[in-house]
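Hey,
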Amino acid sequence: MDPAANTTPAENAPRVTKSDDEWRAELGPEAYAVLRTSATERPFTGEYTDTTAEGVYECRGCGAELFRSATKFESHCGWPSFYDPADSDAVILRRDTSLGMVRVEVLCASCHGHLGHVFEGEGYATPTDQRYCINSVALRLVPAE
């Protein structure tokens, strides 16, 4: 997986921009910490970790469509897992060297909110062999009608 391969011009210019005060007021403390400062919610505590409802997962920060329930799978990692974004331009992948390791960070392409990380080659029976490990608090599920 090459993080630069999924980098778009949007990485340099988010489509949704707000002041830090606006983000804080709209998101609440936990969502702000994850989306705007790259924090991580505790495993097995998120609202969507075990959700099986059908629908679309949007960015809690800006409402952009990120993932669909059809690509969500049980990875038992403690966070919602998806094997593919809803649209190849929905997310930005960026090299992350925090915590003394190399990972691939997943950002919302519209507002550049931190969503989680993507991993590959873990042996899950998914079409992409990828696991987008996403914080529940960064998402909002819009149920199918």
